[in-house]
Amino acid sequence: MTTPSLASQPRIGPGFRLQWEPAQDCHVLLYPEGMVRLNGSAGEIMKRCDGQRSLAAIVAELEQLFATEGLAPQVQEFVAIAGRQHWLRWSAE
């Protein structure tokens, strides 16, 4: 799987569910065989992967949220890894 373009629209993969877990104080990704505990950055990325927003829009939101620039390479890398794990799927407009 290649690095997704900024035009791609990532969404949570089938069989996975993202939710906030108060007991763990983090976002988790649930699937039938278990759970993935996400760090803060991963949770912020994943909760924006709704299949409607482009990766470029997600990057822009994160850059605004964290008052920084240049996050695109790191976000694309995370989305690519999440895609290889089947946590995410995406389509290009």
TrEMBL record:
Family matches, as InterPro entries: PQQD (IPR008792), PqqD_bac (IPR022479), PqqD_sf (IPR041881)
One Pfam match: PqqD
Pathway: Cofactor biosynthesis; pyrroloquinoline quinone biosynthesis
Coiled-coil spans in chain: none
Keyword terms, alphabetized: PQQ biosynthesis
Binding partners and assembly: Monomer. Interacts with PqqE.
HAMAP family: PQQ_syn_PqqD (MF_00655)
Family stated for the protein in its record: Belongs to the PqqD family.
Purpose: Functions as a PqqA binding protein and presents PqqA to PqqE, in the pyrroloquinoline quinone (PQQ) biosynthetic pathway.
Name listed for the protein in its UniProt record: PqqA binding protein
GN (gene name): pqqD
